[in-house]
Amino acid sequence: MTVQGIILSDLDGDRTWRLADYVKRGGYEALRKIIAEQISADQIIGEVKKSALRGRGGAGFPTGLKWSFMPRAFPGAKYLACNSDEGEPGTFKDRDILRYNPHSVIEGMIIAGYAMGCERGYNYIHGEIFEVYERFEEALQEARNAGLLGQGILGSDFSFELYAHHGYGAYICGEETALLESIEGKKGQPRFKPPFPASFGLYGKPTTINNTETFASIPFIIREGGDAFLALGKPNNGGTKLFSVSGHVNKPGNYEIPLGTPFSTLLEMAGGMRGGRQLKAVIPGGSSAPVLPGSVMMDCTMDYDSISKAGSMLGSGAVIVMDETTCMVKALERLSYFYFEESCGQCTPCREGTGWLYRVVHRIESGLGRPDDLDLLNSVTANIMGRTICALGDAASMPVQSFVKHFGDEFAFHIEHKKCLVPKNVQHEGSKIYVA
Amino acid sequence: MGALRIAQEEKGWLANETIEFVAKYLGMPAIAVYEVASFYNMYDLAPVGAKKIAVCTNLPCALSGGVHAAEYIKKKLGIDFNETTADGRFTLKEGECMGACGDAPVLLVNNHRMCSWMTEEKIDQLLADLTK
Amino acid sequence: MLDIEIDGKQLQVPDGSTVMEAATQVGAYVPHFCYHKKLSIAANCRMCLVQVEKAPKPLPACATPVTNGMKVWTHSEQAVKAQKGVMEFLLINHPLDCPICDQGGECQLQDLSVGYGGAQSRYEEEKRVVSNKDLGPLVSTDMTRCINCTRCVRFTSEIAGLMELGQAFRGEHAEIMPFVEKTVDTELSGNIIDLCPVGALTSKPFRFAARAWEMSRRKSVSPHDSLGSNLVVQVKHDTVKRVLPLENEDINECWLSDKDRFSYEALNGPDRLTVPMVKQGGQWIETDWPTALEYVANGLKGIVADHGADSIGALVSPHSTAEELFLTQALVRGLGSGNVDFRLRQIDFALDGKMAGAPWLGMQVSDIRYLDRLLIVGSFFRKDHPLIAQRVRQAVKRGLKVNAVNSAFDDWQLPVANALCVSPAAMPAALAAILKAIAEEKNDQVAPEFVEATLSVVVDENARAIARSLVSGRRVAIWLGNFAVQHAQASQIHRIAHEISRVTGGGFGLIGEAANSVGGYLAGAVPFGEISGKNVREMTSSALRAYLLVNVEPEFDCAFGAVAADVIGKADMVAVFSAFKSAGAFDFADVLLPVSPFTETPGTFVNCEGKAQSFYPVVKSLGSSRPAWKVLKVLGEMLGLKGASADSIEDVRKQIFGDATVVDLNKLDNSVQSDVVVLGNIGGGIQRIADVPIYFADSVVRRAPSLQATRDSSEPSARMSRATLERLGLQAGLKVRVASANGEAIVLAEEDGGVAEGCVRLAGAHSLTSRLGALYGEVSVERL
User: Fold this and answer.
1) Average pLDDT over residues C604-624
2) Are the CB atoms for B61 and B53 separated by under 8 Å?
3) In CA terms, which of A66, A88, C340, C513 is 20 to 30 Å from C89?
4) Does residue A434 have a pLDDT over 50?
5) Is the pLDDT of residue A238 over 90?
6) Is C138 on the interface with A (CB under 8 A)?
7) Which residues of B touch A169 (CB under 8 A)?
């Protein structure tokens, strides 16, 4: 996994995550520079703005702008939170960042804390990657021992405490306000916004939440300058980005590439299609992003704007690749089940609607579909989208809408013939989905 | 949440008495703690086997044999999802995305130990190790 | 102020208003379920989605703050489409069992589905089934109907003070539940029935009794605690079927305590006395009114003639109407006696004749929200005054600091900043210590008349903390609870607490025990004034020749319990005016006159803040029972007493309150004539502290079966601190004998960390403890 990049470059798996290794790679230079040169908070935020870094969690919101929302002069506690609750099917980049390069996140958070005047930060780590949580705790201890965290960092008068917090099996906690509720020890039900976290966040105090990868990009930006970061990508899409490639490829894994790299290049890096089969469909930004037919994807470059133009979202950069052996109905059924299971149950359209969607897709898949089911699916998704407290309602709806839109004929075939368009033995060949 | 996790590690699962104990310890209403325990699916509100295996069958994993791995374990242990072997040794759960889709098939042992690229051979090996 | 346009109507709203509040102001109805003006905003039902200019998607009116220049459409195509979409989701898993649902006819979901629901469901899968929960004897559940609006959850944690319900699990499996096998025990639990917008939570006593549209709704006033909650009494076939709150923002807001809500069951119970009865040769026989009244009139005439007017006396319940209280004392005074009292559980009357006016709360209930410091002295606050405690709970959220001096603490479900727990004997000294500490804090001297009382008291840390708290406040109040008023040295407590309020510049008041604790004074049902006489303590310690008992069950209502009943039983004639039969009255009385409870008579209650609230009967008098005011009036006429006569109920009211429609606040005054205060002594030994449990407090609630089945109606136990238990060689869970000079009670011992050292808390107003006599005083506790 030694791809040229800024986060996962020059790493050697489990052997180079410790503080000493990170320092060898230039780690904590950015922080030292800030402390030594007494760089102002405005300068840091300006640099981040210049870099055109956009939130790596999925929404792609400009990071510098988000930081500038924080009421720096607000008296009293302000908090920083890192969203490492990576549970969006297809996404597995934060896990690698945290287990192979945890200090990049720690340094990024310290700098962010400095820039926004936060006294305390939390890194919320997906419960299922508990070993990564444990390693992060170790890395935090290393940083504390080295005087990089705590009171009077590096002899300055800047203090910042950072804690790790683990989830315990709830996808919804990846939603930023649900994550805050969860850090507070409650169930992770998203809050209604406004008020936004920047004014009413953790424990009711101003809070900024960024993704793991976003924080991990910060040291480079400060060390090398925002322009250098921007130059790695393309305008409005600064820097390199981690893409988690999964599904029907020969080498699934994380690939750090400059934004704007053609999809075909990424597919090649991931070893090409498994068994040399034909590309059928790609979900380019995690399971909630609309699916795109393979042919459309082959014309895209991997950046926020290109994917958006093609009708989907770059999201978290999770690329789920499906080949010709995939039954799209079956694929959607599994995703719909996921959203049904993970709905927090707070607001009506999502609580009631995700179950309805799943049941309709399920009945189509099991050969009990009805002629007007596709209209029903479109209508139910329309009633969910934009009507819920958080984005999970939209996330559950977009796959349904896009699968039906791009692969409607497969759904129609299912309803009419009560079986898959793709024969079961072919499916098995591709994914071993069925046990012979 | 940490308190419940530690209680579960110690007790194996979260009985009502355990939840009430945690609530008392934290000075919270018992139902507030129960809300949390029932919301997050890595907490077990019913007894599980000594080893709880959760296999991810979500789409990215399924495309790379996740479902197959689950089926294989089912056959090996003679149990379905949410069941425990007669000797109380294993419980099988269907997991949701564990954030490790690149390592598919992936499974979790007792919530905290992640096992990657679980081919049939590796599953055989794992089950043998866990049985020891 | 912000400008907003709603459905084309312009208006201005204060900063921080929500769209929902603005819409309510212009009368635009936005459909909703989870929103409730008294609860926090959840925004989870999504029914109130409205169209907002420039917003890409519909926004929930309940949670969207108004911004200046905002334009909102509540019924535009976009808004209605969103609302209909949400309604469809709400209905897919909701059972179509409206015909057997008690909420039918008053169901928000049913109502709104008429406007927003489809004729047929597009959802044809299996509907969700949710298991029912046992929430106790008052609230019935049909959880499959639940739409997860979480109003009930928010109510228990925000209004009742303890989160007894939660939303467990997630997604479609989410369900509202108490913690496993727990019930909802708050004294405000019935409100969740009103809050539930569907039929998931309904009234257990009312279950399947009537349809909402079959009943007429009539206004009334609660006869129980001193708040005077406003009621809607629902009536079908001249029977009270159900009681609901009548919203009155100044008094009960939109809430009711369970006592107010469920006590009506007693009115239809088997215990009702419906025919006059006289005892002849030891046998009770039913008779007619003329015979019974003649018996009483002749009896009274004869006794006055033979033994003098001073040999007759009357006890009248503080839960009686002001008219009943007035006519009772008028009758007694008309006969030439001053022996009348309504303060049945009080034992210290040293202030009688020295008070400037009728004691009251000293402030308006609706002003509680503005207090920033409060000292509550001697009160089982939460159970004695459920909705006043609720008001204090809300005020605490706005910064009120509550201090308390008590002999036994319960969990009030609100933060108490400083608590001082002392034995009843030490309570006056504890207050004196606070007074002394306040003087020290302010570098001041205590007033001359308190020098002696404060001279030897030691100021401990708790007293000092309370003093500091009070001194640092700007809007301070000192309240005496029922326990303080019933205390053996109530007069000292009153004097010192009043002085504390004076030096801190705060208000001072009595919270008041019953619906007419203030009205009784105004009606003159006390043994001082024009013709003075014996107080209740004197009347029940040595027997008179004749007693009139108006709504009084002395074995439960009087301080000395069964001992008082024994004394009364020695009289030549006891006439009982009561709505109920009782074993006690059958034993000691000679005549039983069936009088109407509050639902069958007109009347007036004066609440703790001095508000006189008159009401009409809501149903006809049951059987031959008659309103007590009429019975008293006829009796007065038969005796030829002008003062005890009246042409109408309005005429009686005029005699009490004058021409004014509101109580003259000058008649309410807690100040007392000044003299030197000397701390008295109560003997050593174990002190009894007697609370009057919420559902033992008056003759109506004692007969309400559902309330009697609650946890609050458990048998009394002897509650002591661990140290006291150990010192006496007792063990929790084992039976003990509690004995006083008068008698004894056999009860279970229980450990209770809230009880002062050297004290035993043992409830009064119960047959198990009635033989002990005094509610307070020295007792022995020994292992059985």
Assistant:
1) 97
2) no
3) A88
4) no
5) no
6) no
7) 40-43, 96
Rounded to whole angstroms, the Cα distance separating C747 from C769 reads 9
pLDDT higher than 90, residue A347: yes
- Its pTM stands at 0.95
- Scan for tokens 């809408």, then name that residue: A401
Residue C180 to residue B35, Cβ atoms within 8 A: no
Positive or negative, the CA dihedral C23, C246, C619, C257 is: positive
- A341 vs C44, C58, C171: nearest CB: C171
Place of tokens 């005011």: C629
User: Which residues make Cβ contacts (< 8 Å) with residue A245, sequence separation at least 6?
Assistant: A251, A252, A253, A254, A255, A266, A267, A269, A270, A319, A321, B102
Beta strands in C589-656 (DSSP E): 591-594, 603-606, 612-615
Centroid of chain to Cα C779: 29
- Pairing outcome for strands C9-13 and C2-6: antiparallel
In this prediction, does ipTM exceed 0.85?
yes
In A115-214, beta strands by DSSP E: 120-125, 161-166, 207-211
Interface membership of A186 toward C (CB under 8 Å)? no
Residue pointed to by tokens 């309150």: C657
- How would residue C333 be classed by pLDDT, with cut points 50, 70 and 90? very high
The whole-number pLDDT of residue C1 equals: 92
* Cβ-based contacts of B17 with chain C (< 8 Å): none
For residue C89, give the nearest of A342, A344, A348 by CB distance.
A348
* Distance between CA atoms of residues C635 and C300, nearest Å: 10
Question: How do residues A309-325 score in pLDDT, each as one tens digit?
Answer: 999 999 989 999 999 99
Which residue stretches of A146-191 are H helix? 176-183
pLDDT for the residue A46 = 96
Q: Count of CB contacts below 8 A, A vs B?
A: 158
Contact (Cβ atoms closer than 8 angstroms) between residue A242 and residue A270: no
SS3 call for C735: strand
Q: For chain B, give me the number of helices (H) and strands (E)? A: 6, 5
- Least CB-CB distance to B31: which of C169, C170, C178? C178
Q: Would you state the pLDDT for residue A432?
A: 74
- Whether residue B62 and residue A186 make contact (CB cut-off 8 A), yes or no, is no
Judged on CB neighbours under 10 Å (0-12, 13-18, 19+), C14 is: exposed
Q: Enumerate the residues of chain A whose CB falls inside 8 A of the CB of residue C89.
A: 348-349, 351-353, 356, 383
Distance CA C334, CA C666 (A): 27
